[in-house]
Specification:
Order of helices and strands of chain A: HHEEEEEEEEE
CATH superfamily of chain A: Jelly Rolls
Pfam family, one (chains A, B): Lyx_isomer
Radius of gyration of chain A: 15 Å
Strand content of chain A: 35-45%
InterPro entries (chains A, B): D-lyxose_isomer (IPR010864), RmlC-like_jellyroll (IPR014710), RmlC_Cupin_sf (IPR011051)
Largest sheet of chain A: 9 strands, antiparallel
Distance between the termini of chain A: 15 Å
Number of helices of chain A: 2
Structural class of chain A: mainly beta
Largest interface: A-B, 28 and 28 residues
CATH topology of chain A: Jelly Rolls
CATH architecture of chain A: Sandwich
Shape of chain A: globular
Bound molecules: zinc ion
Oligomer: homodimer
Family (chains A, B): Belongs to the D-lyxose ketol-isomerase family.
Protein name (chains A, B): D-lyxose ketol-isomerase
Number of strands of chain A: 9
Keywords (chains A, B): Carbohydrate metabolism, Isomerase, Manganese, Metal-binding
Chain lengths: 173, 173
């Protein structure tokens, strides 16, 4: 799937869920394949509504069975790492964070990068459910076959500082 | 309209727009009549998804033609006042902030409290449109006859410090 097709699918997914973007926002829909070139397996689509020195709000779209690769948000200078609240709006998401590993996880770890998924404490998020990920904590997440929309409320985003477990990943949209 | 009816109408409004609340959140839907006892004219319904020491996310629901009275969020000690980003999700909102008064405003100022509306720089928000209100800036807003849903992204909420222009207002939900 090319960038343009991914943008259109993202806009369609949001529209079907009743979420409206302006024309300008439609142009700004970000397609993140993390430099892995297998977007449908490992990737994320997002639109940033607001990102200022205090808070940030985005809508994240996951295509069916798509995985956002494991990463964390480290402290930057004297500033704590980014803290994220994920609120599931549509579909279903399996979120994995540091902590007691869940015995039998529901997600399927992407085959090509199996070694780079290392935290397995599972949080299932259905519409209306949310979870807050503390700063500097490894996490990854996967949509089920229905795909998903997740509202992200957080402290300031500085994506270029994110640390991914997979050393091949380059976070340049 | 009593509190229970207002809660039900709020939940119905959100549900119709495809926004899902958990059972617990439905119980927590806040009905703010600001102590004026004329909710349908001056009031606000809201659900707080997250409010921590860094950021806050809420859904605001306005019934048809309902007005949220003029107020501002002052600094608290060394902390700047609350900064709010309003994103219209459904319906239409007229927002008024400090600045050059708009010549002929589209909202109808609530008759009983006309003297307590003093800023008239108009911002019209349709679905997908948003506006960020700086700290310590007077603002008020009104839905059109369709009502409205507004996502609020902001710094920490401390409602008890809000300053309303109308001295009769008590912000105790
Ligand atoms: Zn993250
Ligand atoms: Zn306010």
């Amino acid at each position: 799937m090319d960038r343009k097709a991914a943008q259109l699918q993202t806009i369609e997914t949001l529209t079907k869920a009743g979420l409206v973007l302006t024309e300008d926002e439609m142009q700004r829909v970000e397609i993140a394949d993390f430099g892995l070139d297998r977007l449908e397996q490992e990737g994320l689509q997002l639109i940033t509504y607001e990102n200022n020195s205090h808070y940030c709000a985005k809508e994240l779209v996951l295509f069916p069975n798509q995985t956002c690769p494991e990463h964390k948000h480290p402290p930057i200078g004297k500033t704590e790492g980014k803290q994220e609240t994920f609120r599931c709006r549509a579909g279903k998401v399996y979120l994995y964070v540091e902590g007691e590993p869940t015995e039998s996880i529901q997600a399927t770890i992407p085959r090509e990068s199996e070694a780079y998924y290392t935290v397995f404490h599972e949080v299932e998020l259905n519409p209306g459910q949310q979870y807050t990920i503390p700063p500097n904590t490894l996490h990854w997440f996967q949509a089920t076959e229905q795909g998903a929309i997740v509202s992200e409320f957080s402290t300031t985003s500085r994506d270029e500082y994110d640390i991914f477990t997979n050393p091949d990943i380059k976070r340049t949209p």
